[in-house]
Amino acid sequence: xxxxxLWNLEREEVLKIIxxxxxxxxxxxxxxxxxxxxxxxxxxSPSTRTRMSxxxxxxxxxxxxxxxxxxxxxxxxxxxxxxxxxxMGRFVDAIVARVKNHKTLEDLAExxxxxxxxxxxxxxxxxxxxADLLTMKENGKNFKGLKLVYFxxxxxVSNSLxxxxxxxxxxxxxxTPRSYEPNGLFVKKALEIIxxxxxxxxxxxxxxxIAAKDADVLYTxxxxxxxxxxxxxxxxxxxxxxxxxxxxxxxxAKKDAIVLHCLPANRGLEITDEVIDxxxxxxxxxxxxxxxxxxxxxxxxxxx
Length: 304
What we know:
Strand content: 5-15%
Number of strands: 9
Strand order of the largest sheet: 7-6-5-8-9
CATH superfamily of the largest domain: Aspartate/ornithine carbamoyltransferase
């Protein structure tokens, strides 16, 4: 069982992962779910929360983590990804990979013999979004009918938020500048899931003020991701500022709305200090919840 995107999960499976994450948050230690299991953690780019959360999650579940950074393994350099996958399957019980290209994950899954978990790629960030869902739930946000609004660049986070929202019956609004919309395949998949369940909605807009009206959750991410080599900061600073989450945008949401950011944050760009440090911000709870969600993901993978 691999977890490359969220769209292969059913609603009941997502809810069970969140339920397990809640349990692990209340009961952090004393688990042996991964006893005698070794998990390879591949990182092609720098990481704080993803690296810490998966490393600790594996060890606190009784397993052994093997950290493998870019430059320390061949992975497409001097050795094909397919051969690396075949070899790693002889040594470890699962692979957690934070990579630059989604195709790398697909190759690891296709040619390897052990489960592959997407810890982040250019198209999707499923494990982050599962932590986000936990954060919403523990703040009293019922998923069905919840208005979740994402502001900024249509990146991997927005892609995965659309899928999660569709699975759980949310009304998701993605507010981005024109030509910065989320990936078309993920939009298509989200609409298919909405049709399947007959609940929820997806709206794409370039008007952040309309998007923010009566929102339950406001979410943002950096305007330039690590993998965005083609974006120019001068262009970004011309067209993105109106998508900043600030006091004015927050005032248009519901009074009990919460604010999320997957971090790291460029304070003063996509979000202001006043908001990220304000009482409605759950950003640091959200960061902590990565640990508990990663445990729930690992449990799910080894049960299926």
